Amino acid sequence: QHDCQVLIVGGGSGGCALAAKLSSKLGKKKVTVVEPAERHYYQPMFTLIGGGMKLLEQSYKPMAEVLPKNVNWIKSAAVEFDPKNNTVKTANGTKVKYDMLLVATGLQLNYDKIPGLVQALSIIDGKVCSNYSPKYVNRTYDCLRNIRGGNAIFTFPASPVKCPGAPQKIVYIAEHYFRKLNKRNKITVTYNTALPVIFGVKHYADALWKVVEKRDIKVNLKRNLIEVRAMEDIAVFQDLDKPDQIFEEKYDLLHVTPPMSTPTALAQCKELVNETGFVDVDKSTLQHLRYKNVFAIGDCSASPNSKTAASAAAQSPVVYHNMIAALNGKELKRTYDGYASCPLVTGYRSCILAEFDYDLKPLETFPFAQNKERYTMFFLKKALMPTLYWKVMLNGYWNGPALMRNALSVFKFGKK
Ligand code: FAD
Ligand code: UQ1
Predict the structure, then answer these.
(1) Is the ipTM of this complex over 0.95?
(2) Which candidate, 20, 215, 312, 403, has a CA 20 to 30 Å from the CA of 239?
């Protein structure tokens, strides 16, 4: 048995940022992190790796290097949560007892939920790829290079996903790549999404519809991938409104965004999660609705925001101050407004930076219209964000852009 004041399960974007904040406040070895992974990936870079703009090697650091030195790191996965007894069991047999628990496990990628997909992703030089996993992301650029003509199909699953813009960013990057390589006229580009909209926030959806129209990208809404038949290069889709309607589409490139869920061990703990498997927290304070010594941050939280690293950053000061208040038996004062941001990369030099809150209303940092493709936003995404992430966020110093937004709000360059 291992005892600690604060236990953080998951050392990803949210867990690592909070480990830094909490351990510098509480002191040496007061915080324990349970995290099985050898490497910490900066996942937002996967989009650029798929497009050949960055290398996989640039997207990760050893976990030992990013976790703060003054925490206990148990290099194992949580396999059982027991909030009634304030304990978590790990795969290596440790029983960890905590005063306060922060759940930060992120999402699990369920490639195996689509029959034939795992097999298709294992074929050497195959036509199926996926930016979502470090295991498969290098296949994307290979697929972009190898396709000579035919159908390039991109998917969005019937489940919540992290970075809901990412499944379509690679559509735009691929389309631009095909034009650069003079093969665009031989390739049809199709985006099949299980969602009823192209993007959840109308302000940006309107801009994105213009982009797909201008670039002759076919978008099918409410169309869900249900099977991949790799031997025949056929992807099977279902119309979510008319489940009998099945489409068998031949592909020459298939980019799949897999269904996702919270990790199985967490989803099985019915005391902690709601009916959708996400940690049942108050959407403002991020404290668990029943267990007052439990908080959640990032993708595994049931707070109804878009799941992005930017959201975890904006949640981080709220979770930090409220956890410290709860430890001291004080009232929770901080609230989270649902801020999320999604840099919708639309090619090799352009990006629409979507930023919004719980009400799906734009909540923009910069004083110019952000529902337009811009090079500056592409530069921010490609060149500035990685440093902000590794140096500032993971060390516990990035609280999201709220301060910057307030400072810049004195300017309004032709913004409505
Ligand atoms: P993660 O960072 O995923 O970390 C979860 C951690 O928990 C992992 O280290 C994992 O090993 C660990 N874990 C899992 N199960 C267990 C267990 N049982 N026990 C212990 N530990 C466990 N966000 C943006 O803001 N902007 C973007 O442009 C952007 N683009 C993206 C593009 C792609 C292709 C992808 C995949 C993601 C993108 N994101 C983006 C989303 C962003 O990466 C996530 O929202 C963010 O990492 C969430 O942080 P987290 O801490 O909740 O989860
Ligand atoms: C952000 O804070 C963040 O997390 C560190 C991202 O993930 C990498 C983002 O993509 C974005 C856009 C933000 C928001 C930051 C600014 C400066 C608008």
Answers:
(1) yes
(2) 215
